[in-house]
Write a structure and sequence with these properties.
The protein has one domain: Roll (2,3-Dihydroxybiphenyl 1,2-Dioxygenase, domain 1). It is built from three helices and eight strands. Strand 3 and strand 4 form a beta hairpin. Bound molecules: cobalt (II) ion.
C-alpha cells in the first residue's frame, strides 16, 4: 500500500485550485466531475501521491455538508490497494465499518470504498484500486 492521495474538502474549488497551484508551483493536472457524489475534483501530482481537492456541486452534496459542519480541511486519506474486494473482506473480518457495500466508481479511474473514521482514529480512510 502507498498513499495514493489526500482529499481536501474546499468551499470554493476555483480559488482553492489557484491556491494549490501557487503552493505546489505547478498546474492542476486534472479536473473531474463525480456526478454520483455531486462533487468536482481537482488533482495535483506530488510525486508518488496526489492532492485531491473536493468541491461540492450541489448544496446537498456530502462535501457541502462536511464543510458546513467541520469547515474546510483534510477530508480523507486514500491508500492504493491491488485488490480492493479482498482488502474490504479482510477489514470487515477485522471488525471495521465499511461505508460502501460494494466498491464504487470514484474519480481518477478508480474503484473506491471508505472506512468509517470512528475505526481509524478519526480519519476517513479511502481504499482505491486503479481499474484496468
Ligand atoms: Co479520494
Amino acid at each position: 500500500m502507498h498513499i495514493d492521495h489526500i482529499g481536501i474538502a474546499v468551499k470554493d474549488l476555483e480559488s482553492a485550485i489557484k491556491t494549490y497551484e501557487t503552493i505546489l508551483n505547478s498546474p492542476c493536472s486534472k479536473r473531474e466531475l463525480v456526478s454520483s457524489e455531486k462533487v468536482e475534483t481537482a488533482f495535483f501530482n506530488t510525486g508518488e501521491s496526489k492532492v485531491e481537492l473536493l468541491g461540492a456541486t450541489e448544496p446537498d452534496s456530502v462535501i457541502a455538508k462536511y464543510v458546513e459542519k467541520k469547515g474546510e480541511g483534510l477530508h480523507h486519506v486514500a491508500f492504493e490497494v491491488k485488490d480492493i474486494h479482498a482488502e474490504l473482506d479482510r477489514l470487515r473480518g477485522e471488525g471495521f465499518t465499511i461505508l460502501n457495500e460494494q466498491p464504487k466508481q470514484g474519480a481518477d479511474n478508480k474503484l473506491v470504498a471508505f472506512i468509517h473514521p470512528k475505526d481509524n482514529n478519526g480519519v476517513l480512510v479511502e481504499l482505491c484500486q486503479t481499474q484496468p
